[in-house]
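Supplementary Note 3. Input sequence used for the single-chain structure prediction.
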Amino acid sequence: MLVDLAGYFALPTEACTGACVYTWGPNADGEQANGSTYAIPHQPAVAYGLSGVVTAVEDDHHVCALTSDGLVWDWGDDIDGRLGRGGFGGDHSVFATQIPVLTGATALGYGGIAVANP
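The predicted structure, written as discrete structure tokens, is reproduced below.
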């Protein structure tokens, strides 16, 4: 029996329904948010599980997105703690995952900078 207590193998709840993020290019660290690090054809594809995106920024193998409800999501490489989860490299996220400490965000900047409520 295989039990996924940490949720590493759980798919996001739904596909994009509107205001989607499209990604393409290299995928070694999960930059395409498609559930893998496998390099698929280099054509635009929807980042899975993320809708209502207002803006998105990319920072060398790492992507952040701001949704209309003020939440910040990111995926890709965690080098230098870029995923905002307290890690410091060696890890990556292949799906868009919410950064829990950022709510009410109104803007994003290059390198994982967000304007948000404390």
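The two ends are 42 Å apart (CA to CA). Residues 48 and 81 are 22 Å apart (CA to CA).
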